[in-house]
């Protein structure tokens, strides 16, 4: 260690053995006999750390601390005191001290405090990299085995955990290895879904996952009661890793009572997955029961929300079908005036049994990243995209809304309809004018494609409860990080869409999504 330390104490001579110990560790220690001397020293010299006695004649340690923070707000200060009074501790913490030591102190305490402050990031990086190396082999073996849907969800959650841990390291030296491991896991996961998906729908057993059309019945409606309102918040297009970032920001306000995941149906898009959530039915079942309410995604339509105008109707129909009597409200937040209306109306929502709120910002952000170069530059990879999501959330109406729920000791379920993946590898496909525009899945009557290793083909939509536009309709789903590109203007198309976030296909990021029950900490 080669750090410069300033130690301010009116009895500094009595601390000589400790100073000699620190110097023996390679540290440079300058002393000051008073708070004023310490303030003078930081104006003329540069220090990495200050040890500051709390009880000195003249200016107290707390008064000196305030002055130090005015002049050097980022200079770490360790408060040293004989006092164990809670009030002094709270004032010191409120003044942004880096550590708090109580006399008598021993050499190991000092050394630990210095390492904790000065070398924390380096030590955490070494520890993180070492632990990931150990788990790397275990994970690689695990996803080569025959796994259940729940076991795949657990693998994905572990990969997300390591992604976020490595994100915190300075050099991110293990990030490329983790990325390779995720790609291989996604390859095996896509094979798993392709093999099992039809069985989940037609012959479900104890190993089948809960899918979109069952989450209200399984995870939401059982929590409705007459004692307190339940807020069901659906954040469109939210990945597991993004949720973990938001969960951390909410940790001062809510505690997770139940943390689960579920599988989005195919296609992993708003039009299919979210309508299924609120209807409690698969897409073809919705189309047959409510033909006037189902809108097919045909041709060049790119407005995903245009397919979801009937969510409130579907929700009410599901409640009636299940004979659930509840006073409900439904709100879709797209524009600022929606946000204002929601916040202004908050107190009235407390009179309902169930309040459903759909927030669309994250989905709009992913589309903006594709079409707007400035957003793309701000979020070149997953790490930056998570940071952008966190920045939005901290200043969002959603956060303000959740704080209001917290203040009223409310209950919240947060989920999403599907996730997304950053696409890299194009697969050529040919369709006709009625073929939809989504890059991760296509449906049509005359689909021609190459590289069948990167796609899942469904020639009988009835078998997976998907609508048939005509008798020869088939569906094609991209697997892993591939995307579907037309031969016309192929190079331009690929250049424009490569490295963008898309959804609709088969990947852990799109399919395995969070659903979490939170209670207020108030």
TrEMBL record:
<feature type="domain" description="Response regulatory">
    <location>
        <begin position="4"/>
        <end position="118"/>
    </location>
</feature>
<dbReference type="GO" id="GO:0000160">
    <property type="term" value="P:phosphorelay signal transduction system"/>
</dbReference>
<dbReference type="InterPro" id="IPR017850">
    <property type="entry name" value="Alkaline_phosphatase_core_sf"/>
</dbReference>
<dbReference type="InterPro" id="IPR001789">
    <property type="entry name" value="Sig_transdc_resp-reg_receiver"/>
</dbReference>
<feature type="modified residue" description="4-aspartylphosphate">
    <location>
        <position position="53"/>
    </location>
</feature>
<keyword id="KW-0902">Two-component regulatory system</keyword>
<protein>
    <submittedName>
        <fullName>Response regulator</fullName>
    </submittedName>
</protein>
<dbReference type="Pfam" id="PF00072">
    <property type="entry name" value="Response_reg"/>
</dbReference>
<keyword id="KW-0597">Phosphoprotein</keyword>
<dbReference type="InterPro" id="IPR011006">
    <property type="entry name" value="CheY-like_superfamily"/>
</dbReference>
<dbReference type="InterPro" id="IPR050595">
    <property type="entry name" value="Bact_response_regulator"/>
</dbReference>
<dbReference type="Pfam" id="PF08665">
    <property type="entry name" value="PglZ"/>
</dbReference>
């Amino acid at each position: 260690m080669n750090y410069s330390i300033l130690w301010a104490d009116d009895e500094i001579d009595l601390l000589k053995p400790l100073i000699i110990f620190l110097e023996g560790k390679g540290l440079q220690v300058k002393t000051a006999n008073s708070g004023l001397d310490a303030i003078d020293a930081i104006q003329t010299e540069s220090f990495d750390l200050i040890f500051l006695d709390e009880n000195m004649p003249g200016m107290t340690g707390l008064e000196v601390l305030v002055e130090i923070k005015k002049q050097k707000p980022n200079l770490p200060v360790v408060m040293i005191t004989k006092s164990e009074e809670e009030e002094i501790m709270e004032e010191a913490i409120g003044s942004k001290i880096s550590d708090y030591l109580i006399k008598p102190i021993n050499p190991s305490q000092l050394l630990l405090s210095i390492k904790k402050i000065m070398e924390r990031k380096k030590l955490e990086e070494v520890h993180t990299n070492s632990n990931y190396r150990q788990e790397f082999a275990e994970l690689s073996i695990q996803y080569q085995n025959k796994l259940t849907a729940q076991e795949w969800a657990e693998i994905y959650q572990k990969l997300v955990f390591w992604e976020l841990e490595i994100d915190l390291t300075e050099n991110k030296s293990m990030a490329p290895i983790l990325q390779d491991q995720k790609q291989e896991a996604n390859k095996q996961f896509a094979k798993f879904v392709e093999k099992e998906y039809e069985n989940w729908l037609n012959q479900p057993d104890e190993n089948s996952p809960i899918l979109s059309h069952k989450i209200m019945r399984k995870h939401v409606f059982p929590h409705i009661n007459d004692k307190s309102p339940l807020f069901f918040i659906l954040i469109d297009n939210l990945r597991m890793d993004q949720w973990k970032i938001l969960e951390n920001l909410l940790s001062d306000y809510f505690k997770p009572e139940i943390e689960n995941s579920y599988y989005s149906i195919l296609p992993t898009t708003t039009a299919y997955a979210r309508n299924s959530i609120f209807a409690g039915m698969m897409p073809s079942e919705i189309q047959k029961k409510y033909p006037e309410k189902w809108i097919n995604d045909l041709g060049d339509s790119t407005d995903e929300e245009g397919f979801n105008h009937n969510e409130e109707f579907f929700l009410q129909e599901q409640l009636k079908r299940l004979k659930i009597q509840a006073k409900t409200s439904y709100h879709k937040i797209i524009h600022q005036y929606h946000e204002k209306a929601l916040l202004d109306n908050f107190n009235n929502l407390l009179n309902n049994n169930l309040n459903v709120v759909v927030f669309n910002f994250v989905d709009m952000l992913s589309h903006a990243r594709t079409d707007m170069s400035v957003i793309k530059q701000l979020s070149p990879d997953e790490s930056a995209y998570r940071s952008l999501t966190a920045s939005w959330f901290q200043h969002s109406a959603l956060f303000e809304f959740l704080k209001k729920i917290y203040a009223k000791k409310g209950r919240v379920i947060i989920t999403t309809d599907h996730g997304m993946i950053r696409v890299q590898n194009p697969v050529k496909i040919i369709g006709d004018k009625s073929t939809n525009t989504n890059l991760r899945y296509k449906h049509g009557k005359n689909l021609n494609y190459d590289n069948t290793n990167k796609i899942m083909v469904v020639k009988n939509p009835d078998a997976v409860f998907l609508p048939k536009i005509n008798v020869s309709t088939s569906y094609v789903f991209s697997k892993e990080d591939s995307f579907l590109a037309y031969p016309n203007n192929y190079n331009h198309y690929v250049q424009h869409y490569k490295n963008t976030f898309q959804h609709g296909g088969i990947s852990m990021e799109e399919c395995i999504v969070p659903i979490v029950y939170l209670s207020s900490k108030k």
